[in-house]
Amino acid sequence: MRIIAACVLAFFVTSAPAFAECVTVKYRDTPVCLDTFECTETPQSSFVREICFDAAKSYMLIKLNETWYHYCSVDRTSVNNLLKGPSVGHNYNENFRSHGPVHGPFDCRDHPVPNYPECSCKAG
User: Fold this and answer.
1) Domain ranges in the chain?
2) DSSP string, the chain
């Protein structure tokens, strides 16, 4: 009887749906699941908390304090430079952020925003 109970339990544990972490991005209509992203936490920064990059779609998400923002048509070198500089916050302000009416080089208002399928995800 214990063997049957263990098998039933193993079936339910292994057949449970997988959930990816999902984030709500400012200026984007639908949440994004992070299962295709490479994410890096940035504890050394005073306001940049995490950077996630999907190289296949050249799409970067950045968590500033508690809000996620998106950047489009981003190349791997720019993400690496952002992460490896002496100040992630300074690099972000200089190389990504829009300044007033002048859009930054990766502003999604000027580049196509990639589509992601709806997925089962947990809020993150």
Assistant:
1) 19-123
2) -HHHHHHHHHHHHHTSPP-EEEE-BTT-SS-EEGGG-EEEE-TTSSSEEEEEEEGGGTEEEEEETTEEEEEES--HHHHHHHHHSS-HHHHHHHHT--BTTB--TT-TTSSPPPP-----EEE-
